[in-house]
Write a sequence for this structure.
């Protein structure tokens, strides 16, 4: 066990992501992870490879609303944001010993595997992959951004709070 692991619990987990915007697939993974861990931190992480549609504070607010409105969600979920430094530093700050990611396809496996290995090298932190409902397998934030930006209805793909927000904001805002 390294020094970095001290204080990190395998009963506390982090679900990181861009959540730009949160989708039903994200909520499904958060719901499943919340049942597996005592405390679950959902964190909006700045991804330098992605330009981004919504400000981080808006993504946090939409996640909080979506989680609060989800009747099947357990009450152990905390939403946060992280923009400076490594994801494992955030995990360490909240005492989490596990990262949780949703895997929709082989493409996600290829994208997530190097990050999982690097995070393990950095801090001995394990990544657990969860499979979302197959009905959510084709949903992605980028697709939602594109459809919403062109004025289409994204309500089948996002939680009601996100759908309301995007409808209010209007296509011209993206
Ligand atoms: O939803 P995304 O954009 O696929 O999430 C990717 C994210 C934000 C989780 C990933 O880019 C990340 O972990 N960024 C934090 C920076 C970091 O710690 N990098 C080194 C290990 S991968």
């Amino acid at each position: 066990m390294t020094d970095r692991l001290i204080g990190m619990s395998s009963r506390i987990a982090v679900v990181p992501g861009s959540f730009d915007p949160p989708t039903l697939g994200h909520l499904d993974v958060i719901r499943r992870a919340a049942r597996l861990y005592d405390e679950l931190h959902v964190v909006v992480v700045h991804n330098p490879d992605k330009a981004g549609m919504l400000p981080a504070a808006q993504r946090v607010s939409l996640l909080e609303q979506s989680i609060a409105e989800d009747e099947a969600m357990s009450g152990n979920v905390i939403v946060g944001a992280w923009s400076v430094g490594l994801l494992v530093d955030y995990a360490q700050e909240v005492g989490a010993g596990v990262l949780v990611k949703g895997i929709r396809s082989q493409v996600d496996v290829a994208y997530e595997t190097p990050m999982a290995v690097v995070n393990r090298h950095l801090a001995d932190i394990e990544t657990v992959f969860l499979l979302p409902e197959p009905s959510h397998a084709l949903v992605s934030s980028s697709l939602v951004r594109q459809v919403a930006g062109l004025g289409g209805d994204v309500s089948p793909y996002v939680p009601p709070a996100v759908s309301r927000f995007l409808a209010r904001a209007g296509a011209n805002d993206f």
